Amino acid sequence: MFDSVRKMLVAAMVAGCAAPAFAADMPEPTVVEPPPVYEAAPVEYGGWYIRGDIDYHKSKMRGTNYITYGAEPCPTDCGDPDAWQGVGGSKSFDTTELRSAFSIGAGLGYQINRYFRTDLTVDYWLKSKFKGSTSDDGNFGCGSPTVPCQSVDRSKMSALLLLANAYVDLGTWNRVTPYIGAGIGGAHVRWGDLINDIDGFEQRHKGSKSWRFAYALMAGASYCLTDRVALDAGYRFTRIEGGRMFERNGAGPGFDKGFNTHEVRAGLRYSLGGSANGCSEPQAVAYEVPSEPIYTK
């Protein structure tokens, strides 16, 4: 019996020593952590922005005319001594041309939502050179020889354009957001003195200035430079109604019938609150360790 007890004790001691070694040989379970979760960063739609622009524009005059005074060309019946004594009329320039020019502008706007924004803009059009010509048959009375004459007319035009604009942003692809828009407002047009040159003899007509109705249509695209700054480039068509061009000096006053202007524009928009529209990017959400680890075999 004693031998049996001794064998049992020896077997227990051997088993106790072997257990730690066996446990050391067993592989440890692997903890599996879920991958990071990515989601689009929240976009803070709605907020103020400021903008600055430059443009290069070409204006086409829609017509000009001026008042004439004194005798008109001799009518068909030159035997009537009173027939040629006209009281004045209206004539048009034979040719008109406004040179291209630059403008600078600034504005304050508000991003209402992802697809709609508005702004108020002011643009100063630098001086555009004007060149025109007028002609007359030179008939100063019945019996006088007809001596045609032609004049060359020079002046300069500048304007201050104020517009309230609305835009529809059409979506964003690769940080590019195309848009269309329209604006309405007014333009303060300033004409310089008109110099009328006939064969070296110059006559000066004082230039006029006036407020006129104006509207614009535009299309373009913006590109995100940073989360707050966007580069804006596009085209704008601006229509300015007519008004007085120069004052009377012998002939006059003169009037222009307005302008159709084609503008190529570029500028920057800076968002004062939150990201600029379309400029936010996805970012990783912070991972939280689960309360109970997940093991795999």
TrEMBL record:
Domain Outer membrane protein beta-barrel per the UniProt entry, residue ranges: 10-270
Cross-referenced Pfam families: OMP_b-brl
Signal peptide per UniProt: 1-23
Domain of life: Bacteria
Gene3D superfamilies: 2.40.160.20
Presence of keyword Protein biosynthesis: no
Sequence intervals crossing the membrane: none
Keyword Signal: yes
Key words, A-Z: Signal
Name assigned to this protein: Outer membrane protein
Naturally occurring in which organism (per UniProt): Aquamicrobium soli
